[in-house]
Amino acid sequence: MLSTNISRWICSENICVLCFATHRKHDSHETTEVADNLKLEIDDDDEEQILSAISSFREQSEQTQQDTTEFRSKAEEREGLFST
Question: Which of 1, 31, 38, 78 has its CA 20 to 30 A from that of 49?
Fold first, then answer.
């Protein structure tokens, strides 16, 4: 799985260039190298979970948009009742 392996690529220390030489707690890598390695760690299950989450988000977004349209329509109807 993806979750536990990410932490080995991320260093939460903020250090200056002068301190970098003595900061050896973590290996440092180019961002593109880390991204390429991370891609390799994402297995098919992770990909399916990600795609499922995206699909679910899109469905919820569409439903929210429909609810908003319906609410506005009802609000405009009621507004018309009070305008006369």
Answer: 31
